[in-house]
Design brief:
By secondary structure, the chain is of the alpha+beta class. The protein contains three helices and 13 strands; from the N terminus they run αβββββββββββαββα.
């Protein structure tokens, strides 16, 4: 039996509401996650920055993907990135372990670096982002340390946050040994409820 047009309206509105629920996602703050994967340590970075509250101190030179836990330094992305913008004004932990400098074997994506002032000639803590970076622009990068572990890199598992304001994207988060932010089952639950509601409504309209 064909569904009358008048009965299709609630079904259409319901479908639009469900689509909007899953298509509109809030911007995620930039974070880097280090994981032990097989015999390697892999770092993946993604998200966006809100640079309001930081001060542009000028251009910076290119760099290499690396970590230096005892000085709170992490650089991730493509090696020898030609140039970047340097920002100062954030605060946070001065280290995330006891390890000295370790260069990554490979790196790819946007070059982002967080360097503590003690390793930058005492000038101040510096955040490097791609040249001309605009707040809210998504960043994506990674690096891999072959044949290493957290212990050999001297990094301490945990979550470390450097911030310069109260906004969601006014921070740089480093997670060592973390799986990221869990969904908590909320998305799956919402999808399940939506599908059940859609089926129930369809049956009612077919009556």
């Amino acid at each position: 039996m064909e569904t009358p047009p008048k009965k299709l309206l609630p079904l259409t509105l319901f479908a639009i509401a469900v689509t909007s629920l899953f298509s509109v996602q809030p911007a995620q703050a930039y974070s880097v996650t280090l994981k032990e994967v097989g015999n390697n340590v892999v770092a993946n970075g993604s998200g966006a920055f809100n640079l309001v509250g930081l001060t542009l101190s000028g251009p910076g030179a290119g760099g290499l993907p690396l970590v230096q836990a005892n000085s709170g330094i992490i650089q991730i992305g493509a090696a020898n990135h030609p140039i970047s913008d340097a920002y100062i004004g954030f605060t946070g932990p001065t280290n995330f372990g006891f390890g000295t400098q370790f260069l990554a074997n490979t790196g790819s994506g946007d070059f982002v670096a967080l360097i503590q002032g003690i390793a930058f000639g005492g000038v101040g803590d510096v955040l490097f982002v791609p040249t001309g970076y605009v707040s809210g622009t998504a960043l994506l990068d990674s690096m891999t340390f072959n044949n290493t572990t957290f212990a050999s890199l001297g990094v301490t598992p945990g979550t470390y946050v450097w911030s310069w304001g109260d906004g969601a994207n006014q921070r740089f988060t480093l997670r060592i040994g973390a799986a990221g932010v869990p969904d908590g089952g909320s998305t799956v639950s919402l999808l399940g409820c939506a599908l059940l509601g859609l089926v129930a409504m369809r049956r009612k309209l077919d009556c």
